[in-house]
């Protein structure tokens, strides 16, 4: 009887975990493993691009790839993990609750936006965290021209000045002009608790972001947060008011609550603090990867971020190691020493940095070309060709 590796999630980490496990089984000449992926849809949703228009197109069908690699697809939504019973309960495509057993489990459920209980954000706000919510925002933006011209209609407030907030805020000026007309006085306002724009970044990178925002006309409200969102705008914690028909929340994510029944240490973002092999301590047959894993990238104290850059590599290592644990192969400790940042800055261009100290290497059009290559090609699934897919899934091969 085959031993089952069950992977929950078909995002970047889950997809690559499946391919990585299939790769090692192939290299070992083993036919004794069943590799199964449980997710609501057999597709990769390209979440890093959800700030763009035409969101519905930003998916990739995984069925051809999985069929080529003999990876089983289980369509359903995971409900809970029962580690003592080595099983997962899930709701299948017919909305029926059922269970599946595993010999090894990989948690790759990703993360969700965390709004910190901000009053009114659920009723009146928008976000681009998931495909459905990004589509809801796109529908709203496309309908703005049907509303009467007013400062509120022409104003978008982006709550949060992190990576997603910056990319969205700098994308919106040209998008609003295309929707409302070049002569319309549109406004994009980014709200950030920090005292500086891009406070988590190096000074060199912050300067590029500031210059791009100044040129694009993106306004920043610093040293304050969101107090209340309502039908006509947002009230900030400093007491100021912004009238806006569109308020978008981008601040803060937390790891999926999937696996809450697993007793193990987590970090402030809800990620499991894993071993170098990406196992959850105390649970030798359960691995966490992607946004669900708090993992050291090197020996210098750096930790994987909740980005596709790290999720892809975490997935490859998790897939290799989970298969290795069943095949008697020595596992590989996760390492991802190289770190880069490629931040889209809308019509201004982009900025590319290298290293954890974020040394700026490319700006404007040169960086934009690289950003497009990364987000339109590099992060997409490999072709449904066994040799190409397995070569790409090698955890020791350089990703960027």
UniProtKB/TrEMBL annotation:
SUPFAM superfamilies according to UniProt: FAD/NAD(P)-binding domain
InterPro entries: FAD/NAD-bd_sf (IPR036188), FAD/NAD-binding_dom (IPR023753), NDH-2 (IPR045024)
Domain FAD/NAD(P)-binding: 4-313
Entry keyword Transcription regulation: no
Sorted UniProt keywords: FAD, Flavoprotein, NAD, Oxidoreductase
Origin: domain of life: Bacteria
Family from the record: Belongs to the NADH dehydrogenase family.
Protein name: FAD-dependent oxidoreductase
Organism for this UniProt entry: Aeromonas lusitana
């Amino acid at each position: 009887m085959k031993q089952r590796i069950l992977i929950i999630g078909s995002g970047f980490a889950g997809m690559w975990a499946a391919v990585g496990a299939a790769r090692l089984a192939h290299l070992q000449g083993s036919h004794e493993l069943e590799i199964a992926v449980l997710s609501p849809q057999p597709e990769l949703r390209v979440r890093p691009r959800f700030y763009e228009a035409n969101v519905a197109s930003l998916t990739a069908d995984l069925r051809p790839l999985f069929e080529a690699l003999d990876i089983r697809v289980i369509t359903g939504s995971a409900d809970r993990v029962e580690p003592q019973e080595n099983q997962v309960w899930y709701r299948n495509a017919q909305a029926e609750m059922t269970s599946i057993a595993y010999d090894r489990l990989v948690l790759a459920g990703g993360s969700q936006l965390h709004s910190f209980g901000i009053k009114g954000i659920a009723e009146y706000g928008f976000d681009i965290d998931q495909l459905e919510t990004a589509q809801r925002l796109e529908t709203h933006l496309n309908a703005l021209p049907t509303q009467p011209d007013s400062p509120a209609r022409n104003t978008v407030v982006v709550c949060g000045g992190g990576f997603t907030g910056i990319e969205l805020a700098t994308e919106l000026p040209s998008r609003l002009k295309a929707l409302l007309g070049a002569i319309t006085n549109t406004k994009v306002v980014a709200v950030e608790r920090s005292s500086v724009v891009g406070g988590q970044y190096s000074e060199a990178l912050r300067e590029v972001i500031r210059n791009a925002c100044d040129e694009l006309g993106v306004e920043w409200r610093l040293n304050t947060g969101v107090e209340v969102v309502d039908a006509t705008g947002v009230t900030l914690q400093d007491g100021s008011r912004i009238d806006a028909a569109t308020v978008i929340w981008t601040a803060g994510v937390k790891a999926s609550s999937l696996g809450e029944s697993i007793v193990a240490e987590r970090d402030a973002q809800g990620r499991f603090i894993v071993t170098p092999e990406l196992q959850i301590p105390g649970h030798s047959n359960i691995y966490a990867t992607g946004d669900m894993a708090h993992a050291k990238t090197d020996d210098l104290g750096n930790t994987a971020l909740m980005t596709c850059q790290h999720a892809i590599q975490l997935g490859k290592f998790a897939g290799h190691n989970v298969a290795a644990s069943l095949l008697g192969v020595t596992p590989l400790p996760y390492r991802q020493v190289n770190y880069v940042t490629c931040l889209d800055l809308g019509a201004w261009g982009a900025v590319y940095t290298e290293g954890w100290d974020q040394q700026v290497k490319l700006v404007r059009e040169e960086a934009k070309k690289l950003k497009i290559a990364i987000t339109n090609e590099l992060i997409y699934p490999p072709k449904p060709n066994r040799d190409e897919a397995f070569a790409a899934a090698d955890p020791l091969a350089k990703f960027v």
